[in-house]
């Protein structure tokens, strides 16, 4: 447990610092609101969510994978496959689960209310990728534990997946400039910042596209891929149309957003 925590913390800090420096050296777009104000709220959430998960859940995803292996739970624990293939399948299927979970949080109105906190950010940088409502994080953890128990992936696969998910969330929310030729090639395999930024547009059709966090194949496979925003990356508006006043998006208000905020017409079944 302590080793896993150390590995994940070191990985988080290395990726966070790398993307933050990249944003300073080669920003994709100018920021429109106070970075200091946004980062105070976003970083506070980063500290709140892991503590809450630790308090609520007696076991982590890797712990569930270990228990599943000991008791023979899950599909992969009952199929004789090479270990390397177990790893690849485990990581890929868990990524698919996160994709489907993301779609669900856009499709079900009550879940969208929780997810609004992520989309209400008026700018787009690496901290946006870590800004999720605590209740959404708890529900996500339940889904993740259930998926690990049902799939039975190796413990190492779950650890790699957790690091990838966290790191890719910071990378593809990064306000970083990647040459178009490289982005065009890279997004065939993983979600790039330009690809995922479309998902944070105020335009409803664009918000309900590009749900992937890690592998880009799911959006292409399920027909939710949208290559570019209608107004282009330089002129598109980030956020939600009903939340445009920065002083009304402080941490206390963000935490209250699911209960008092206007969901607008963003949920998929209202569009």
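Q: What amino acid sequence fits the structure above?
A:
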């Amino acid at each position: 447990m302590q080793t896993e925590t150390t590995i994940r913390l070191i990985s988080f800090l290395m990726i966070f610092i790398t993307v933050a420096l990249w944003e300073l050296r080669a920003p994709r777009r100018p920021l429109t609101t106070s970075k200091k104000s946004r980062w105070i709220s976003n970083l506070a959430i980063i500290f709140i969510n892991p503590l809450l998960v630790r308090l609520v859940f007696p076991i982590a995803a890797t712990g569930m994978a270990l228990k599943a292996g000991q008791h023979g739970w899950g599909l992969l624990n009952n199929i004789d496959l090479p270990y390397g293939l177990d790893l690849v399948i485990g990581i890929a299927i868990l990524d698919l689960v996160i994709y489907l979970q993301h779609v669900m949080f856009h499709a079900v109105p009550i879940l969208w209310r929780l997810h609004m906190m992520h989309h209400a950010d008026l700018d787009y940088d690496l901290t946006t990728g870590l800004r999720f409502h605590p209740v959404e994080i708890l529900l996500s953890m339940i889904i993740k534990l259930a998926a690990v128990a049902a799939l039975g992936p190796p413990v190492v696969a779950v650890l790699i997946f957790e690091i990838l998910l966290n790191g890719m969330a910071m990378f593809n929310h990064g306000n970083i400039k990647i040459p178009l030729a490289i982005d065009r090639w890279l997004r065939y395999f993983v979600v790039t910042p330009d690809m995922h930024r479309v998902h944070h547009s105020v335009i409803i059709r664009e918000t309900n596209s590009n749900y992937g966090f890690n592998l880009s194949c799911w959006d292409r496979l399920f027909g939710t891929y949208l290559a570019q925003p209608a107004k282009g990356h330089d002129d598109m508006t980030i956020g939600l149309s009903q939340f445009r006043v920065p002083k009304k998006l402080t941490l206390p208000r963000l935490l209250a957003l699911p209960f008092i905020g206007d969901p607008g017409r963003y949920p998929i079944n209202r569009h």
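Q: And what stands out in the fold?
A: The chain has 13 helices and no strands.
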